[in-house]
Amino acid sequence: MTAPRPAPEAAVVTEAAVVTEAAVVTEPAADAAGRPVPDPRTARLARTLLDHSLDVRSGETVLIRSTGPAGEPLVRELYARCLSRGALPSVYIHLADEDDLVLGATRDRRLHRRADPMLVHLYETADAVVRIEAEENPFALRERPPGDQEARQESRFSLIHQQLRRLAAGTLRRCTTHYPTDGYARQAGLTTAAYTDLVHRVMLTDTEDPVRAWRHVRARQQRIADRLAGAEDLHVLGGDVDLRMSLRGRPVDNCCGRENLPDGELCLAPLEDSVRGWVRASGPGYLHDTEVRDLQVWFEGGRVVRWECSSGAQQVAAALAVDDAAGRIGEIGFGLNDRVGRPVGYSLVDTKAAGRMSVSLGQAAPRPAVPTTHPSTGLSRWTCDREHGHGRR
User: Fold this and answer.
1) Strand locations in the chain, DSSP E?
2) With b meaning 16 or more CB within 10 Å and e meaning fewer, what string describes 22-59?
3) Are 237 and 228 in contact (CB under 8 A)?
4) Bridge partners of 10?
5) Strand partners, 36
């Protein structure tokens, strides 16, 4: 975020590319007989999740949840590795296009909003949760009416509430990760092979020792986090953003593969009434599978006071009206991962790109020094790019 030299009490992020350079490993596609071999990068990802992200120990219960059957290769690696260290894994794999299946099978809204009781129980009893985003059709609900989309979102809210409550109490560890599929590749405009290479590059699983690489990232990013922490006046200025806020008494989260993978950003929760200014999503985004274009939001006293967009207005209005928290900034992220490159239309990757800022409305992760924000359907993870004019939800 480029800005004039601030007053001594202000803080401005000036560094971006902090992800370590590491030796890249070339992966074989087939064995000597021409048979396909398991991708060793998937095994490295499983080890990184268990050793770095979640620190899974013997005797702990681990929920391995995949949003689609395509994530099975990673599920299998995680399952075997949990057992080999004496942990107790449980597996929950969603059906392909499960949301669309539910909406097509019944018009009963109670069933649309229902979370599987088995999944609710697993979230309540697990010591650690790995959630694998592995959908073959990421926008399966795009053609469904907004009411249908909202109902299926509500089916997830009980799990979100559970997770936030247990995270705040310190009784749960979790990490959301990504498994590349044909659907995500099509969305990004890449071949599946090229998209898979990009995902592993961003997650550092194309290196010999991703755990060591992420520890290096943590050390590098901490130097920037220390400069930002507790800033009385943080001014973020760029082509798509002019926001001022206070971080007085608030920590800055060094996001280095613990709760999300891919990762590589700093996340902060400003004082709720201190945010003022405006931000523009520098590209189209999706809210519950509805495309929203040219979204611009203005803040005063920490609340949304005005907004406009050229498409998706009905969805934006509904999201901001859900509850009192939906119109407030819950979290701001500064992307620092210089391995991302161009946007791919998927927030778990795009928000980590070096030089990009993401703004989450109505949702913030629990922190010891920060009140937990209600996990509403606010406009989560809208991004702006100060240089390149790209953005995604």
Assistant:
1) 10-11, 61-66, 88-93, 128-133, 173-178, 233-238, 241-245, 252-255, 260-261, 265-268, 276-280, 285-287, 290-292, 296-300, 303-308, 329-335, 356-361, 382-385
2) eeeeeeeeeeeeeeeeebebbbbbbbbbbebbbebeee
3) no
4) 233
5) 30
Q: Which residues pair with 133 in a beta bridge?
A: 178
CA distance 346 to 133: 11
- Provide the pairing of β-strand 252-255 with 265-268: antiparallel
Both tokens of 39, joined, read 């991708």
Q: What is the pLDDT of residues 290-346, one digit of tens each?
A: 778 888 899 998 889 989 988 888 778 877 777 777 788 888 899 999 999 888 888
pLDDT in tens, 234-278: 899 888 899 999 998 888 999 999 999 999 999 988 988 899 999
Give the tokens for residue 226: 């220390």
Closest C-alpha among 387, 18, 349 to residue 198: 349
**Taking phi first (over 0 means left), then psi (-120 to 50 degrees means alpha), and beta for anything else, what does residue 249 get?**
left
User: Does the predicted TM-score (pTM) go above 0.85?
Assistant: no
In angstroms, rounded to a whole number, what is the distance separating the alpha carbons of residues 100 and 95? 10
Give the β-pairing of 241-245 and 276-280. antiparallel
| Edge-to-edge strand ranges of the sheet holding 303-308 | 10-11, 233-238, 241-245, 276-280, 296-300, 303-308
